[in-house]
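User: Could you check the structure of this?
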Amino acid sequence: MNPRHFGAPMRTTAMCAVVLFVAGVGLGVAQSSQGAAMPLEPARKSGASVTPAFEGWYQNPDGSYSLLIGYYNRNTAETLEIPAGPNNMIEPGELDQGQPTHFQTGRQWGVFVIKVPKDFGGTNVRWTIEANGERNSVPFTLNKGYPVTPFKEAGMSNSPPSLTFAGNGPKVTGPPVGIAAELTGKAGEAIALAVSVEDDKGIAPGKSANVATVSFHKYRGPGGVKFDNTRVSAKQQGERISVKASFDKAGEYIVRVQANDESGEGGGGFQCCWTNAYVKVHVQ
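Assistant: Sure, the predicted structure tokens are below.
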């Protein structure tokens, strides 16, 4: 069995550690302060928990390490807004370290990265989320069983798609690092978000003839966000995709743009090959 495969969590009592598994990737050893869903309990539309998910770690060219992190919202219909703070915090250090504050339903893969120094050693970083009265906390370490290669899947020689936001701008590929683009607009008015997509891998026999699928997600921000199209398939290399986003309140938002090649969501459990990028939107 893949060490990151897991089933539904067992019911727990106050602060009992349980090993959580979901959708092909381990959620690490989570501590839960409330009862969790029973293994055969039907999925709930709302009222369920959100659990951090550790995709794994990789080393950077400068010797530092990056911890690749996602989450699992067990609700099938309820999205959640949890501001960075006591109920959505990273430790040690600042409680806000760029984690999402908007939680979509289901499994979201590799949505942010925490960079740690090359002498990080056996220490850990912990993400704690409290949702619907249940508090889940997962530590992230440089565990020898969790190295990943998000920029190259050696078995198939596959690499993530690349995204280009400005006409001659840099290509973004792999896990998210910094802000890839910035936009400005007004609340209640549609803002165009355009991106070009390429992928180095040819289409395998029997697979869809799409270069990649690009999806658009609210990541952070004070109000609601609506896209006229949340998922678009690019059928040609370098195709320019454009969607319109509407924001119902003024403020600063981050939109996550994700590109998946034929390996699919989460790279089929291999942690490659997809790309996440952040677009900051200033809404007046």
